[in-house]
Amino acid sequence: RSTLFPYTTLFRSMLDAALVVRPLGWLRQQERYAAVLDPFDKGLSHYLNAAKDSRLLFDVITDLCESLEALAQIVTGRTGKDLSANREMLVNKLGISEHFKTMLKGYIEYANDMARHAKDGKAKSPLAPAEVEAFMYLTGLFIRLAILTPIVGED
Fold first, then answer.
1. Of the ranges 63-72, 123-132, 136-145, which one carries the lowest mean pLDDT score?
2. What is the dihedral of CA 25, 47, 56, 145, to 10 degrees?
3. Residue 116 has what pLDDT?
4. What pLDDT does 8 receive?
5. Contacts of 116 (CB under 8 A, 6+ apart)
6. How far apart are CA 94 and CA 64, in angstroms?
7. d(Cα 18, Cα 11) in Å, to the nearest integer?
8. How far apart are the first and last CA of the chain?
9. What percent of the chain has pLDDT over 70?
């Protein structure tokens, strides 16, 4: 057992608070985020139930990506466009660095690959819960970034 175990547990609870609980609170406070909240909530529920059925981990990825896609549509005003199509405008509207654009591109590619493998039944192996948890935190990070960042061009 690692001597870092107590710190790991503390760090994980801090991540939960900052990247899951707070974003959920913000999304629940404003009706305009209902389209973001529903798939985010669904993804979290699937994550919690994946302990009994690991196939749900693929659904977690899909649900969380749908959540971020809905947020991108709100921020960009481009409903009907998927996250990939809204990526560039989202980054521009938020005024964030090219590094985050690269991270968002990787996020989208990962989600698309996982969804395609699950849909085709070609998943090589079950997803690692820790990997899906990291994706969940990354989704929360992008939601937090979008909600806390003033939109470029808006007063």
1. 123-132
2. 50
3. 67
4. 58
5. 122
6. 20
7. 11
8. 52
9. 83
**Cα gap 152→155, rounded to integer Å:** 8
Among candidates 122, 139, 132, 140, which has minimal Cα distance to 54? Answer: 132
pLDDT tens-digit readout, 134-154: 999 999 999 999 988 877 666
Classify residue 153 by burial, with Cβ atoms within 10 Å: 0-12, 13-18, 19+. exposed
Q: Residues 60, 135: contact at Cβ < 8 Å?
A: yes
- Tell me what pLDDT residue 25 has: 86
Q: Name the one residue in this structure whose structure tokens are 């608070």.
A: 17
Ramachandran assignment for 145, one of left (phi > 0), alpha (psi -120 to 50 degrees), beta (any other): alpha
Dig out the tokens for 142 from the structure.
Answer: 């992008």
